[in-house]
Fold this sequence. Notes:
This protein is an alpha/beta fold. The chain contains 16 helices and 14 strands. A 7-stranded mixed sheet has the order 1-9-8-5-4-2-3, with helices on both faces. Helix 1 (about 15-25) packs antiparallel against helix 9, helix 3 packs across helix 7 (about 200-210) and helix 5 packs parallel to helix 6. It starts with 13 loop residues before the first helix and ends with a helix. About 50% of the residues are buried. The structure holds pyridoxal-5'-phosphate. Pyridoxal-5'-phosphate binds near residues 83, 128, 178 and 180. The site of pyridoxal-5'-phosphate (PLP) has 13 residues, from loops.
Amino acid sequence: MPETENPSKYLGNELKYLRKVLEGESWSSTGGSWTIALERAFAKKFKMNHAVAFNSGTSTLHAALEAVGVGPGDEVISPSITVIMDTTATIHANAVPVYADVNPKTFTIDPKDVARKITSKTKAIITVSIYGLSPDMDPILEIARKHGIPVIEDNAQAILSYYKGRLLGTLGDVASFSFENTKHISCGEGGVIVTSNEALAEMARKIGGHGFKNLKADEGRVRLNQDVFQNPHYKRHDVLGWNYRLAEFNAAVALAQLERVDELVDLRVKSANLFIEAMKTCDYLIPQEQPTGYVNSYYTLGAIYEGAESIGVSWEDFRKVYVKSGGDGIYGAWSVPYLEPMIANRKFAKRCPWVYENIIYEPGLCPVAEHIQPKIMQFKTNYRDLDLAKKKADILRGIIKKFASS
Ligand SMILES: Cc1ncc(COP(=O)(O)O)c(C=O)c1O
């Protein structure tokens, strides 16, 4: 179905704010005010002391890893059902990805396997709220506290999700969000971290901002005093940094989106519930479990498809029939990261041979993840019109009925 069927996601102040950026003097966060406004609004929404904006939800992860002290040869534990970015950010820090298996019903990282994977080299744990659902955070936070290991929440797919009444983003040492095109709130590309640790926020901002020494936890402008900054004797950089800054245009759009985040999340949750209701009419589509006390913000609706065994229809054929009947494309889950060619071909090892020479990943490492990954179906929840979502959920219901009678 053409995306035009779905109303635009830019229904608020996006155009108005963009025009103001264009008319203003600075289009970069080094001198502008939109990134600061976005960061303050984000910190306020999460009742956290600091927010630092980045140009993606991957640069956030890289900067967060380095800001908590991860470096060459350290180990970082992340889940085995997730996108590649938790792995790549770890390798960008010259650290070693260590994979923990997942819970087969919630698809989130298994705290027991996290405990098993801890070594003296573990320097961070990345928890991923996959499809919008929080992992079981309490046991992970306990393990982390016991070993003095920082926890980085990767909430690229979750905003306004809750874990036992606590807002996701406020549980770990630092939390990362993405504003990539498909996310709940988007400005094309972008991201932000929130934390209440001032030193961590300052270091993350420096890592993302060329290591300018005058950057602070809440200050992204670099030319604070022209007389000092323009002097040839002035030394600017005290940290190795990258350029991960968010442009002011993106910040302005993300701010307008943040103003409507409750409404945008509500639309996804209501859309997901329409599909969950349709799935109740069969026994072979089992939605991602939402344990009591958890609130899923449903970036997408993940479900295990057991139709190959139950009704003799393959994953591919079920998807084909759904799409042919007018449904939106069902996505499969990404391969478990360590089985991607990028890891298997070992080219990454050349960047730091002494770290990676003995690091080998083989099938069987995370058996639960490897078992469920090919069965997962991801249903679209990104509808801005609930009548449209209902139309699509009714198509799913119709197909289930058709296969029941054939
Ligand atoms: C769980 C997760 N982590 C990290 C990222 C990376 O975010 P970005 O695409 O903004 O770099 C994504 C985005 O797809 C994601 O889904």
